[in-house]
Write a structure and sequence with these properties.
- The structure is a homodimer of 290-residue chains.
- By secondary structure, chain A is α+β, with helices and mostly antiparallel strands.
- The first copy, chain A, has helices spanning 34-40, 49-53, 135-144, 146-171, 175-192, 206-213, 217-229, 245-253, 279-288, and strands at residues 30-33, 55-61, 66-68, 76-82, 85-90, 96-102, 107-108, 121-124, 128-134, 199-201, 233-236, 239-242.
- Chain A contains 9 helices and 12 strands.
- In chain A, strands 1-2-9-4-7 form a 5-stranded antiparallel beta sheet. The first copy, chain A, has a 4-stranded antiparallel beta sheet with strand order 3-8-5-6.
- Chains A and B meet through strand 6, helix 3 and helix 4 of A and strand 6, helix 3 and helix 4 of B.
- The structure holds a DNA duplex (30 and 30 nucleotides).
Chain lengths: 290, 290
DNA sequence: CGATCGTTTGACGGTGCTCAATCACCGTGG
DNA sequence: CCACGGTGATTGAGCACCGTCAAACGATCG
């Protein structure tokens, strides 16, 4: 989907829903009180009267639609209310690099403020809903509603922390470790949203995951298979279930392919995470079984 | 310097408990008017009287000293005034993962606000100076000095944009491409600071670069050597000069195996990049020359 | 001047990228 | 209902990039 996302032609579409590429629908069906937005962002309700009276517009974004168009002006800042997005950057040769995935509570479009240009795009991976805040209103609203200001500060802080996590994800050298970290990362995020941390429903394609992790998509597929064979994961298309959390966690820790079996001696903390085995040995085990 | 920051690195050193912040010196010699801070962050001076009267404390951080200690409370938010920092995250096994490098104008410590815990550390790579803003004063100051508020919004927006650039850096599959992108990234940053974009003085070790890029430090060294042999770079320890900017840029574009073309003599203008060629084109070229 | 750390280079083996083929799953239209 | 592309996911084979181990060399500092 959305193989169309081409570089924008500098159009600075106003409030109107922009029709980028295919089915880019971004109408605005309704609004919700500020309180809802605050709760979504993790801010305390505060119960201020104004927060109930003031409403923020909602936009609906269909699966595959472009919320942030690369090259466009920074017209709005969004907060995801429901759904999932991928942030992308399209190279000159058309290659679409995935930079991040966003879930409810995440802020989108804020990085465009500094130069009034969307240097990264955002595409909905499923039907989604976002709060829309016009950039030119942002400073004013923040000043007028301290609760919003505080919530936004928190959200941005979280976003920066997440960026660090992304870097950590990609820093692993072994592709299996990268995937393991990604699964754990997504699991933690789902749990934070009140969903099951063990039964995951991946919203993105293998190719998107591969792009984010900086590996070939075939490798992602192979790594999934390896985890399945080892009894760590159960995978059915985009439905993933974590079977052996400890082993998955252990795999996460390996920074590079190594970090071998160290439990034998001088293990630092207490219990060395059960039967620790190196990434390779996992695969090796499954192979030597025959 | 920085003998304290032990790199577990390749060996599975069952490290000793990290001795973070040994010579962590952070005295506070002086203060500077808010105007200075605003200018540093890219905000417009505005010329407000209050901005001149109000002063922000400065801290000095010696090379190798820890500004942000992992696990500590979020006591302050800092803005780099001079010097360079690396942001790190130490794994349980002691491996020190580099997450980012920071230069003057960058905000440090903001990501700790969301949970009142420094999940990432920061170490000075050279003698540095930072503005220090107590976390508990942040909201108040922002409200009291709108220019600061706006400048901070800009700075955070920039920081998020930079995070995306980091991800882009690491997403390349070829280690040479990663290094090329890193050089270009650092060059752009130096230029933004008013320094030469061609003659670079790297503040960090090969190990730190390798950690950030997710490759072995030997590979970084080898890639540097390759670039030197190809006449793209001139390297003397940590002094790097960009000799052939176009070739370096061309190398930067290669996302993964696909899409690139940089015959070392073919015209270099913005090309439609239709030809595809292997990632190793550069090295291959240099090798087949003989 | 010696110790320590950072950097470089070599050799070797393995992981993962590339190129393909196959299968599963759709929505479409015959 | 089934044939028909189209997309995504999986798996295989081959090879070369790069991680690992090792050993010099160079730089810095006490």
């Amino acid at each position: 989907m959305t193989p169309d996302t081409r570089l924008a032609d500098t159009d600075s579409t106003r409030n109107e829903p922009r029709v980028t590429g295919r089915c880019a629908l971004t109408p605005m069906p309704a609004s919700r009180p500020l309180t809802d937005l605050l709760r979504l962002m993790g801010g305390e309700p505060d119960g201020s009267e104004a927060d109930h009276a003031f409403t923020v517009p909602l936009w609906q974004v269909r699966a595959g639609a472009t919320l942030l168009l690369e090259g466009a002006r920074a017209s709005h800042v969004y907060v995801v209310r429901a759904g999932t997005f991928k942030s992308i950057k399209t190279a000159e040769d058309g290659y679409e690099q995935v930079l991040a995935f966003s879930s409810p509570g995440d802020v989108l479009g804020f990085e465009a403020l500094c130069e009034d240009r969307q240097h990264t795009g955002a595409v909905a991976l499923e039907d989604s809903i976002v709060f829309a805040i016009a950039s030119r209103d942002l400073l004013l609203w923040r000043r007028q509603y301290p609760t919003l200001d505080h919530a936004l500060q928190l959200a941005l802080s979280r976003r920066l922390a997440r960026a660090g996590e992304m870097t950590e994800l990609m820093a692993a050298v072994s592709s299996e470790v990268r995937l393991a970290r990604f699964i754990m990362w997504w699991s933690a995020r789902m749990e934070a949203l009140g969903q099951s941390p063990r039964r995951l429903r991946l919203r993105m394609s293998r190719r998107d995951i591969a792009s984010l992790l900086g590996v070939a998509h075939e490798t992602v597929s192979r790594s999934f298979s390896t985890f399945v064979e080892c009894g760590v994961l159960s995978v059915a298309n985009r439905e993933v279930e974590i079977i052996d959390l400890e082993r998955l966690k252990a795999c996460t820790r390996n920074t590079r392919g190594l970090a071998d079996d160290m439990p034998y001696r001088s293990a630092v903390g207490g219990r060395p995470a059960g039967l620790r085995q190196r990434t390779r040995s996992l695969e090796a085990a499954s192979l030597t079984v025959n």
